[in-house]
């Protein structure tokens, strides 16, 4: 059996009761933290809280050499953990398909997603979000500024009057649990990049979703680029037109000046 468990958004307390039970009942527990991270905890604390040892795999250990996970799951009860909700990344879907191809039974225990948290914290209606996109660091896509694909996604959503959730890049130099080697794109950096193709455009920053002190700030992208939003992780939302209720929430909770 191979069970995929989403650990939630922030720290060792973010996992659901069902996810905790699956982890504690497992013979072996694997995890990856290169697609997203629990920035409110570390590996030692997570293991102590869950009462288990977690075998962390890097990108190559999931995408190119998943054999240790699959071989273990053929004869043992194995859990594979990720931050957020599992199956959001195609990497995890591929691992599940490989398991099914070998006759390994799989199941999913969901965790909270950044997408649903962003809608909840901003007051922007969930069914008005269009296609999401990820804004990479400049050197990650071999060019300057914003990739054409990101611009096209935002433009297409705005043309259909939909909001765009922009995930911000995480550069992981060391695949293991070492904060000092990670670089997280900040919302101010993202706003600076996006203000070029989208000047005088409203943006909404969501920082530390799932933590005890999340932050939501709404302003023009140009103004957001000049602000700081504290510790990671950050998200950025580019809204379409606002329903009156959405506007009221952004004004009251995010400091938006919609005049």
UniProtKB/TrEMBL annotation:
It catalyses: 2-[(3S)-amino-3-carboxypropyl]-L-histidyl-[translation elongation factor 2] + 3 S-adenosyl-L-methionine = diphthine-[translation elongation factor 2] + 3 S-adenosyl-L-homocysteine + 3 H(+). Residues 1-225 form the Tetrapyrrole methylase domain. The keyword Transferase applies. It comes from the Archaea. InterPro entries: 4pyrrol_Mease, 4pyrrol_Methylase_sf, 4pyrrole_Mease_sub1, 4pyrrole_Mease_sub2, Dphthn_synthase. Keywords: Methyltransferase, S-adenosyl-L-methionine, Transferase. The keyword Transferase applies. Its EC number is 2.1.1.98. GO terms for biological process: methylation; protein histidyl modification to diphthamide. Pathway: Protein modification; peptidyl-diphthamide biosynthesis. S-adenosyl-L-methionine-dependent methyltransferase that catalyzes the trimethylation of the amino group of the modified target histidine residue in translation elongation factor 2 (EF-2), to form an intermediate called diphthine. The three successive methylation reactions represent the second step of diphthamide biosynthesis. Belongs to the diphthine synthase family. Homodimer. This is Diphthine synthase. It comes from Haloarcula vallismortis ATCC 29715.
